[in-house]
Design a protein that fits this description.
This protein has helices spanning about 15-25, 70-80, 90-95, 150-160, 210-225, and strands at about 1-10, 30-35, 45-50, 80-85, 100-105, 110-120, 135-145, 145-150, 165-170, 180-185, 190-195. It is of the alpha/beta class. The protein is built from 5 helices and 11 strands; from the N terminus they run E-H-E-E-H-E-H-E-E-E-E-H-E-E-E-H. A 9-stranded mixed beta sheet has the order 2-1-3-4-11-10-9-6-7, with helices on both faces. A two-stranded antiparallel ribbon has the order 5-8.
Length: about 230
């Protein structure tokens, strides 16, 4: 199968969750890549996981975007490699300029930790292709800086280019602009970011298996590319 590279920063706490989800779903093997590494070791895709990289000093993701490994992730993305940013990973890829917009403090300034409903807005991406457009997914969130914001021109482009992957469907837990919970970008729609944690929703015993469709979509995309 395929090898996922999972970036590990000081303060990451979802790296093992992401690696385990990839492996338990039968997608292949996972390599943990340290933030000081300068080699992606030939992985097939990259996951920038959740957590509190560098203690969220300055703001979430602001320091992590300067880690040596992120130069390699940026090159990988520019060459069309699949990059999946989850929660803190979404914050990092936005800070690194791999996706537009930014993640700001939640409205009310409270940490949000619960299952939320997401509506799948597009299946036109390597990540959501195995999901059903309009379907509702139950995925947990755990963040204090998850409010997606962007300027009006960027927002208009996101809509026009079908880049909004998910919207919050049963209440907005953080005040995110236009209820946006996840977007896609990059040169070939190959970089995604989402605040909810699909790696924590891959088995019914975890409360939901709805996140598995994203990993199935990635495997389908990688399989086509290999043929």
């Amino acid at each position: 199968m395929f090898t996922a590279g999972v970036i590990v920063f000081p303060g990451s706490n979802c790296d093992r969750d992401a690696a385990n989800a990839w492996q338990e779903l039968g997608c292949g093997s996972a390599k943990l890549l340290w933030h000081r590494d300068t080699d992606l070791q030939g992985v097939d895709m990259v996951i920038v996981p959740g957590g509190f990289s560098y203690g969220d000093a300055l703001r979430a993701g602001a320091i992590a975007r300067f880690a040596p490994i992120m130069d390699e992730v940026a090159k990988f993305a520019q060459d069309g490699g699949l990059v999946m940013g989850i929660c803190n990973g979404f914050q990092i890829v936005c800070e690194a300029g791999l996706l537009p917009g930014a993640l700001a403090r939640n409205e009310g300034l409270k940490f949000a930790c619960k299952h939320v409903d997401l509506r799948v807005e597009t299946v036109n991406s390597p990540f959501t292709r195995a999901c059903e457009r309009g379907a509702t997914l139950s995925i947990p969130i755990a963040h204090g800086e998850g409010r997606y914001v962007c300027d009006e021109a960027t927002h208009a482009r996101l809509i026009a280019d079908d880049q909004i992957l998910f919207r919050y469907a049963s209440g907005n837990p953080n005040g995110s602009q236009d209820n946006i919970a996840g977007i896609v970008g990059g040169p070939n729609r190959n970089v995604m970011g989402m605040m909810p944690h699909p790696e924590r929703a891959t088995r019914v015993g975890l409360g939901s298996a709805d996140g598995a469709c994203l990993f199935r979509g990635i495997v389908a995309t990688l399989t086509e590319a290999r043929v």
